Amino acid sequence: PVPQPTVDLSHYRVSGPNRFGTAALAALDQYPAGADTVTLAPAWAEVDQSIAAGYQDGPVLLSSGESLHPITAEAIRTLQPQHIRAVGGGVSDAALREALAVAGLTPKEN
Question: What pTM does this model have?
């Protein structure tokens, strides 16, 4: 076989150190000027992530446990959303409150 030239494919790939990083990098790649809305989905629930991707008004970031992953929090700061929604029961109330606080938003009263 003929040897193939070595080609750097890194500029074709969006890939972070983990799923949180990959989601954040994809969000920043798609919305370099920021996003009006960010959707949070549970990091370990692919069905909820797929449903979240159906909202086409902003990026999907991932949440896990009772607090935001630092990469997710930094992406929210950078994107400066005016709205945050959570999809699925796997996004805890604590993580949602933290996301709102990071974005400088106040939870709405019912």
Answer: 0.89
Residue 75 CB contacts under 8 Å (≥ 6 apart), including other chains:
23, 24, 27, 28, 38, 59, 61
Residue 18, token pair as written in the block: 């983990």
Q: Please say whether the beta carbons of 77 and 29 come within 8 A.
A: no
Q: How many whole angstroms separate alpha carbon 7 and alpha carbon 96? A: 42
Taking only the tens of pLDDT, the chain with its 110 residues reads: 787 778 888 888 899 999 999 999 999 999 999 999 999 999 999 999 999 999 999 999 999 989 999 999 999 999 999 999 999 999 999 999 999 999 999 988 76
User: Residue ranges of the alpha helices (H) in the chain?
Assistant: 19-30, 46-53, 70-79, 93-102
31-44 per-residue burial string, b: 16 or more CB within 10 A, e: under 16: beeebebbbbbbbe
Q: Which two tokens stand for residue 38?
A: 């960010």
d(CA 54, CA 60): 10
